[in-house]
Amino acid sequence: MGLEEVLQGYCDAGNAHDIDAMISFFSADCEFYSSIGPNVYGKLYKGIESVREGLLYFLDICPNGQWRNIRYFVSGNRGFIEWTFVGSTPNGANIEVAGCDLITFKDAKIAIKDSYRKN
Fold first, then answer.
1. Chain segment 13-66, per-residue pLDDT in tens
2. Is residue 46 within 8 Å of residue 82, measured between CB atoms?
3. What is each CA distance from 70 to 7, 11, 33, 98, in whole angstroms?
4. What is the pLDDT at residue 39?
5. Does the predicted model carry a pTM greater than 0.90?
């Protein structure tokens, strides 16, 4: 599987809210820097189980959420995903936010996912 296919598969799994499929694209020693959190880099989730927890947190915020207008590219061991996230929270608040993920690959898996978003 090529690295662009990794990004496409990850995006498809995210839109399906299939956490097992999403996590299958990550390396065992992965890191996820969320776009929100207590530190300058957001919140760090380190290791496969912690990354699973972080991804589930965001899926639960917006159970009907979808990533739209997805564009991505790969150069060497780095990738970039640009997106617009839309949906609503369980209490009915609408969400629409533009963002991107900076990706570092290791052995054809996502080793680092560093997320950024605009409000």
1. 999 999 999 999 999 999 999 998 888 889 999 999 999 999 999 999 999 999
2. no
3. 10, 8, 20, 10
4. 87
5. yes
**Cβ neighbours for 86, distance < 8 A, ≥ 6 positions apart:** 65, 66, 68, 94, 95, 96
Q: How many residues in the chain?
A: 119
Nearest by Cα to 28 from 118, 111, 116, 90:
111
Q: How many alpha carbons fall within 13 Å on the CB side of residue 69?
A: 10
Contact criterion met (CB below 8 Å) for 104 and 81: no
pLDDT digits (tens, 9 = 90+) for 72-84: 999 999 999 999 9
Spell out the residues 6+ positions from residue 39 whose beta carbon is closer than 8 angstroms to its own: none
- The reported pLDDT for the residue numbered 41 is 87
Q: What would the DSSP string read from start to end of 61-109?
A: HSTT-EEEEEEEEEETTEEEEEEEEEEE-TTS-EEEEEEEEEEEEETTE
